Amino acid sequence: MQHQPPHIPDQGVFKAAFSLTLPIAMGYVPVGMAYGVLAGKAGLSAVNVLLMSVLVYAGSAQLVAVGLFASGAALASIVATTFAVNLRHVLFAAAMSPLLRGWRKRELAAFAFELTDESFALHAARFGRGDRDKALTLTINVLAQASWVGGTALGLLVGDVMGDGRAFALDFALPGMFLALLAGQLAGPSQVAAAVAGAGLSLGAAALGITGYGALAAGLAGAACGFGVEKWMTRKPV
Amino acid sequence: MDDAKACLTIVAMAGVTYLTRSAPLLALAGRTLSPWAIRLLAHVPAAVLAALVAPALLRPDGRMDFGLGNVVLWAGLASFALAVRTRGFFGPVALGMGIVAAARYVLG
């Protein structure tokens, strides 16, 4: 690995990062706007709406949280749901870990703060083709988050003219994101089984009027089902 | 919820989110989790995402709705089909939002 100077990235790195981040930003700005509009309408203050994009920086978890804030959910329920929705990051981080061997602790800590579905996909592809530049990696992450926070601010600004946002289908942004993320997860029968079990149990819980932790519990039980199916499929012949 | 409590909630959300992103990088540092833990964790995303999205599609107004008027369901199926085919992310979301917005405009 070549040594990177510790000072601010030069213009070359910035340019390269900008063009690599552009496709991510083209998605983050509109979805960030949807979050900004909906969060503003959920009764959060503008400062809190922006704070969430700066500190949490996880699109789907933020949109779920907005729905929970709007329905008056308790702190513990919002935090537990955020944790479950973001558990997939453990897998991304575990997959990146061997690629980032040799990085210092504080560099890893900075990298982890801005690890998202999209930045993981981009970095995994870059590192796969041998592009392991540390300054470029961290600059991409900062630019991607800047586009998310910028989108959020735009959403706060235009929120008043968007009405309840239904005419612009803003209420579809979250299920749409979940479906796209889900499609990327369904590699093999055990993953499909986990999804079907999670969906079925969640609908069952909703039909019984179990809200709040219902979907969360259904998801974890569904994961156990998928794990069981995989165990069964890879069992050793007796 | 008042602003201070909402702020506290957001900080706690940030804490658990950072935990999911940093723990494997900082704690593992080259080592790996036990194989069964990895396999169980590997099934959490699909199951949790499906559990969260299913009621949004099938119970948009708090009861099961397979009707043609449930535009979120039909847009969701189109979105999902495109995502499975292209592995894209924002294309499918944009398609679904376009369908929902157009259907609401036409249906009034």
Number of DSSP-assigned strands of chain A: 0
**Structural class by sheet pairing and helices of chain A:** mainly alpha
Q: Roughly what percent helix of chain B? A: over 70%
User: What is the overall silhouette of chain B?
Assistant: extended
Largest sheet of chain B: none
H-E order of chain B: HHHHH
Low-confidence regions of chain B: none
Give the count of helical stretches of chain A: 11
Q: Pairing-aware structural class of the strands and helices of chain B?
A: mainly alpha
Give the termini separation of chain B: 34 Å
Total strand segments of chain B: 0
The value of Rg of chain B in angstroms is 19 Å
Number of domains of chain A: 2
Return Rg of chain A in Å.
20 Å
The 3D shape of chain A can be described as flat
On the 0 to 100 scale, the average pLDDT of chain B is 89
**How many structural units, i.e. domains of chain B?**
2
Concise structural overview:
The complex is a heterodimer of chains A (238) and B (108). Chain A has 238 residues and is mostly helical.
List its traits.
heterodimer; A: 238 residues; mainly alpha; 11 helices; flat; B: 108 residues; 2 domains; 5 helices; 77% helix
Would you mind describing this structure in some detail?
The complex is a heterodimer of chains A (238) and B (108). Chain A has 238 residues and is an all-alpha fold. Chain A folds into two domains: 163 residues, no CATH class; 53 residues, no CATH class. Chain A contains eleven helices and no strands. In chain A, helix 1 crosses helix 2, helix 1 packs parallel to helix 8 and helix 5 packs parallel to helix 7. Chain B is mostly helical and 108 residues long. Chain B folds into two domains: 31 residues; 64 residues, no CATH class. Chain B contains five helices and no strands. Chain B is extended.
